[in-house]
Amino acid sequence: MPKKERKRLQVVISDEQDALLTRTAYELSSPERLISKSEVVRLAIEKIARELGEGAPLEDYRAILDTETVSDEA
């Protein structure tokens, strides 16, 4: 079976966001399975998309984004 092709995305995150990713990956991990920070990001994307599909208010997400310092450095 061919390997599933994935797209790569590079983003700039703060030290605080990196620490949150690390802590979340650690908390989701178990002795049987370690969870990577990339898996946490993929999970978050799926969760947000699902919530928006179920009618979650966009204003809540926009408010979070407005309070964050978002950097689009390439």
Mean pLDDT figure: 87
**What class do helices, strands and sheet pairing give?**
mainly alpha
Task: Name the quaternary structure.
Answer: single chain
Radius of gyration: 15 Å
User: What is the share of helical residues?
Assistant: 55-70%
Distance between the termini: 35 Å
- Strand % is under 5%
Overall form: globular
Number of helical regions:
3
Order of helices and strands: HHH
Please count the beta strands (DSSP E, at least 2 residues each).
0
Low-confidence stretches: 70-74
Largest sheet: none
Organism: Deinococcus petrolearius
Protein name: Transcriptional regulator
Give a quick summary of the entry.
The chain is an all-alpha fold.
